[in-house]
Each structure stands twice: as C-alpha cells, then as structure tokens.
Amino acid sequence: MRPIILGILAAFFFAFTFIINRSMELEGGSWIWSASLRYFFMVPFLLLLVIGRRNLKPLIEEMKNNPKAWLLWSTVGFGLFYGPLCFSAAYAPGWLIASTWQITIISGSLLAPLFFETVMTKKGPVQVKGKIPLKGMAMSMIILLGIILMQVEQAGSLSTYKVLLGVVPVIIASFAYPLGNRRMMDVCGGRLDVFQRVLGMTIASLPLWIVLAIYGLFTVGPPSIGQSVQSGIVAITSGVIATILFFQATDLVRGNMQKLGNVEATQSMEVLFALMGELLLLKAAFPSVISWTGMVLVMAGMVLHSYVSHKGDILDGKKVSA
Q1: Burial class (CB in 10 A: 0-12, 13-18, 19+), 145
Q2: Average pLDDT in the chain
Q3: pTM for this one?
Q4: Beta strand ranges found along the chain (DSSP E)
Q5: Cα(243)–Cα(85) distance, rounded to whole angstroms?
C-alpha cells in the first residue's frame, strides 16, 4: 500500500508541471527555458539533500564506474521525457497533455519484456524475462477510456496540427520516462538510494540542457524573471519532490513488473489534479457530465488495477508455497 500512496502523492506534485508549463506558455515563455531551467534549478536542491545525508562520494564513484550508461539513460529518462512535455505545452492545453501522458500506464507495461524480474520458486529467487501484464493492461484501458471521455469535447475544438504537435511528443515522453528510470535502476543495482539516483540522473542529463539553453539564447533570448521563478517552482514540486516520491515508490517494487505497473498506474491521478489546478488558477472551463463520467472511470480503473495486481501477487505466493 505504501508504494501506491507515494505514487499518488507524486502525481499531485507532478501535476504542477502541466499547470505551470501551460501558464508560462500563455505568458509568452519559451518551452526551451521551461525544460532546461527546471533541471538547472534541481541540482542545488538535490546536492544539499545528498550532501546532508553524506552520500555524495558513493554517487560520484558509481557514476565514474559506468559514465556512458549514466549519460545515455539519464538523457532518455529526463531529456526525452521533459523536453517533449514542455514542447507540447506550446500547442495544447495542460489538460490534454496531462491526459495524453497517461499513455505511460500502457507504455510502461509494454516495456516489461525488455527487463528481468525476480520470481520466487521452490529453489529460491530466479531472474526471468518480464512479461506484459495482460490483466493489468485491461484495467489500464479502463483508465484510458475515462481519460478519453474527459477530454473528448475539448479535443474536438483543436486543429489536427495542434493535436499532433501536442500529443506525439507526449507519447514519446511516455516511453522515455519509464525506460530511463528502469534502466537506471538496473545500472545502480540497489547500491544507491533514491536521492542519489535522482541527483545522478540530473547531473548526467545536464549536457543536453546546456546545449538546449545555448540554443535558446541565440533563438529566443534569455528567459524572463517570471518564467525563471515559475521554473524554480516546477523544479521543487515536480523535479525534486514528485520525482523522489515516484522513484521511491518504484524502488519499493523493484524487480516485480506487475507491482511496478501498478505504481505507474497511480500517475493517472495527474489528470484530476491538473484539472483542479486549471480550474482554480487558469480559470479553465468547468467539466461537463461526460468529463465527470470519465473521472469516475479513471478512479474505478485505478482501484481495479490495484486489485488485479494484488490478487495476482497472492496467487503467485500460493503457487510458490505449494
């Protein structure tokens, strides 16, 4: 239950990303600075946390042992995740981005065959190739159906061009985030805690953000004070708090693809949190009956997803003890 609670809390803080990024775009800020500033601001906060826990030296040594893997999967997990999300904010409202982002529920499950999971047998723990959790995927489809219902009326008012530029980058991000996160868990092998891993991935992704920032200086100019402040808020809420909570939740179920998919399913709550935030802060239109029906489906899908995964764990336990 603890991983689920952590996942929901992470979804709440992740929702700030969609709301504030949309706000910055409406105020004329560039997606380039929305993306790069977040990670620049994250570094000092994470450094203080890791140094305060006296865990910086082990992290440095770990990164020195496998620098290529750190650079590659951090760029995938953070760069190809957040860059496309910020880019899409220039073409679609926050609610549509938050809704499309929930495809990560399916994306994460589809990535299962690329990894190994630990299975308990009579002879002890055995590493086997992950399988796509079909029952969990069925529950995920209920969640996605609810999301589609929530946004069907609003999405109809957007042009195909804006839908593609607002949706396709988010789909790319939905695969990049769980892929980078899971690969880095394998690279770390449980030797680092969540604070160290987030800091390490942030530092390893800095080359991408530096290049993007230089490009931004020559194309759109420096960021405004307002955008810098809002990017700082996103860095704290989504970059530090939400990422640490989510990584902590995934660490607790590391090696179990079914439970991992269950934790990732909690991120569907971002839609509800983002919608409430837009209603309160950006004065968005109040949802229709169809949209509220969709929200109920999202909540029901989450409960069913959790139930199916938990039931599967119990059956697996019985099979082992037989």
Answers
A1: middle
A2: 81
A3: 0.80
A4: 116-121, 124-129
A5: 15
